[in-house]
Amino acid sequence: MTINFRLIGEDARLTEAEMWPRYRVAHPRILGSILDLAASVNRVLPSVSLGKKPRMADFALILAAVDEILGTNGLQVYVEKQNELATDSLTGDSFITAIAKMGPFTGTSAEILDWTIKPEKPPRDWPANARAVTQRLKRQAPVMRKAGWQVEHDDGRNHKNVAIWTITPRPGDARILSSQPSQPSQDGAKRESARNARHEYGPSPYDEHCHQCGDPLDADDILDVSDGERDATIHRRCEIAWSEAGR
Which residues touch 112 (CB under 8 Å, ≥6 apart)? Predict the structure, then answer.
C-alpha cells in the first residue's frame, strides 16, 4: 500500500537537534498506542469474517479488524488499490484493451481474434493466431478478474472440443482503458486516400501498402514498378531511396 505523507512547510521543518527531544517525549505514547492496537486486533481477529478475501488474505483480515476497532476503511482502500493496479496493468495490453471496447463475448480464441478490431498497424504484442490469444488470456485472466472482469473458459468440454471463453469486461472499462492520450493516426488518412484513388481510378491488382516500406500508400505518391526485377506498387519516395541505394 502507498502511504502519502503531508508535505512539511518550510516554516515547520525541524533540525535533528530539535526533532529528537520531541521524539523521545512522544515515543512511549506512540509505542503504547501501537501495542494497544495490536492487542485489540488480536482480541477481535477470531470473530472477523470476510465474504471475499483478496490477495494477502491474512493481511486483509487484520485490516478488517483495525477498521472494526478504529472505524476506518483500510480494507476498502486496500481492495480499491489492488483493482486500480490491475486496471493499470491491463491498460498496457493493447489486445485486452480492444476486447474491453467490444464488450461481452463468448467464443473460441480464434473467434475472439476475428471479432476484435485489429489496429491498422498492430502493435508488437498483438496476438498472431488463436494459440497466442489463448496464452494471452490465460496469463491475463487473474488480473482481469481482479479488475472486475468475468473471465471463464470450459477447457474444451463441448461438442467442438475447443475451449470456449466467456468474457465480460467491467462496466466502464472501455472508457477507462482507452483514456490514455494518443496521437492522431496519419496512417488512417493515407489508407483512406488510397481507397479514394482506387474508387476513382479503378481497382489495383496490388494491395494498399507500399511493397518497399510497408506503409499505407498515399494516393498522391503511388508508383507502379515493373522493370523485370520487381513488379509492385510503391511510394515514389521509396523508389528514389531504392535508386540512390543502388538497388
Answer: 99, 105, 133, 137, 165, 167
Question: Domain spans of the chain?
Answer: 16-78, 92-177, 186-244
Q: Cα separation of 237 and 115, whole Å?
A: 36
DSSP class of residue 225 equals E
**DSSP labels for 136-153?**
HHHHHHHHHHHTT-EEEE
What residues form DSSP beta bridges with 223? Answer: 234
Beta bridge pairs of residue 234:
223
d(CA 234, CA 228): 15
Instruction: Give CA–CA dist 53/46, Å, rounded.
Output: 15
Burial label, 219 (beta-carbon count in 10 A; 0-12, 13-18, 19+): middle
* pLDDT tens column, 117-153: 888 888 888 998 989 999 999 888 888 888 888 999 8
- Quote the CA–CA distance of 176 and 171 in Å, as a whole number: 10
Helix, coil or strand: residue 61:
helix
